[in-house]
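> call design_seq(struct)
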């Protein structure tokens, strides 16, 4: 059980870094880039620029980092689609109020986790725009659901394959899943929530998320998965 929890924690940390640092390879996108890539690059470029001008004290501040992630990154994530996929069959059974509550708490969890992981990285590493190498987008121009392949160049010299899954919404292109070395964010969270969903249902997982988010908001430590996951 501890091994599984450690694996989830390590995977989610890597996923968070890929999301927060991934779309920062170039200052601005070339005109030939896919519209999804152009849109997301611009948003993340602005976030990286904000971090570059921040003091080390600000980078280590959970509230400051949450503000940065909320302003620059969260608008590019489709929390509704991610929530729907994470809950799977339980989404269809949930009431409208349950869906809204889960989306709200799941969004808080992701932002808390992303901001904590980004803070840990930003305090100990230089922030620059050379983290990622993109591969050509091979999707048809008319596709409304695409996969962007990339490679993250870590400070240790290791190259990590990352895939971003995005789709076209009424508010533009948004990410709904990220896969790092073949491990999906959605699959990871769905697996970590599975046991509690079977035992307590959607209301039970919402209550657990509220409690977890309250603890994370008061803590500067990296989020840990619930012991019963």
């Amino acid at each position: 059980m501890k091994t599984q929890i450690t694996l989830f924690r390590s995977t989610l940390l890597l996923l968070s870094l890929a999301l927060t640092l991934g779309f920062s390879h170039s200052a601005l996108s070339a005109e030939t880039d896919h519209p999804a890539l152009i849109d997301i690059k611009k948003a993340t470029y602005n976030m990286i620029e904000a971090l570059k001008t921040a003091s080390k004290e600000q980078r280590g501040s959970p509230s400051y980092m949450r503000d940065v992630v909320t302003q620059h990154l969260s608008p590019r994530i489709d929390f509704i689609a991610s929530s729907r996929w994470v809950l799977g069959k339980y989404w269809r059974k949930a009431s409208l109020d349950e869906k809204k509550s889960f989306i709200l708490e799941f969004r808080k969890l992701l932002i808390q986790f992303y901001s904590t992981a980004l803070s840990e990285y930003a305090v100990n590493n230089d922030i620059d725009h050379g983290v990622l190498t993109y591969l050509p987008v091979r999707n048809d121009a008319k596709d409304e659901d695409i996969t962007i392949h990339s490679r993250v160049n870590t400070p240790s010299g290791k190259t990590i394959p990352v895939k971003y899954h995005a789709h076209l919404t009424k508010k533009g292109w948004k990410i709904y899943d990220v896969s790092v070395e073949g491990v999906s964010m959605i699959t990871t969270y769905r697996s970590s929530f599975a046991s509690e969903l079977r035992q307590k249902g959607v209301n039970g997982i919402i209550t657990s998320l509220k409690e977890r988010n309250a603890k994370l908001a008061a803590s500067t430590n990296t989020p840990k998965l619930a012991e019963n996951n």
